[in-house]
Specification:
This protein has 153 residues and is an alpha/beta fold. It contains three helices and nine strands, in the order E-E-E-H-E-E-E-E-H-E-H-E. The longest helix is centred in the C-terminal third of the chain and has 14 residues. The two termini are 35 Å apart.
């Protein structure tokens, strides 16, 4: 079953917008009455029925929901590599194994001191849906190495 992602969740309804809505209704040609699965990235999984498809939104009725609780938290600190493709590949793999938060460090000898956070968030969302993981990790931008110990939970 394919997963869709949404943060707009009420008690009984979910709204799909943007790329998720386009993927659901245009690419996969889901229609009113079809059943789909939506995740919220925080452990919530919702079985839904499509009840309305508008121009930019898709309204879903929640049929069943389950909430998954994680027993552990993994926070990974990484100095960004020179090659951004390696960083993207690594991000996919660490999401597959269940890392909850990734923080990039700008170290003294780091070549790369910035990252494309929007691109990494898209990759993280795609990896989460592909592996049918219920948790979307938090991705922090580059911080100085000296500040790393201040954000450890």
């Amino acid at each position: 079953m394919q997963f869709f992602y949404s943060e707009k969740i009420d008690d009984n309804f979910i709204i799909l917008e943007g790329e998720e809505m386009v993927h659901c209704t245009k690419s996969l040609r889901k229609k009113v009455g079809d059943l789909i699965c939506v995740i919220d990235g925080n452990g919530g999984c919702y079985d839904c029925k499509i009840i309305n498809i508008a121009l930019k939104t898709c309204k879903l009725l929640i049929i069943d929901k389950k909430i998954i609780n994680k027993k552990y938290q993994i926070h990974l600190f990484i100095a960004p590599t020179k090659n951004h493709k390696r960083m993207e590949w690594m991000l996919e793999k660490i999401i597959e194994i269940g890392v909850d938060r990734v923080t990039f460090l700008a170290c003294e000898n780091s070549i790369r001191k910035t990252i494309n956070l929007n691109r990494l968030n898209k990759i993280a969302l795609s990896a989460m849906k592909q592996t049918q993981n219920y948790f979307l990790p938090i991705i922090d931008s580059c911080i100085p190495f000296s500040d790393a110990f201040n954000i450890i939970d």
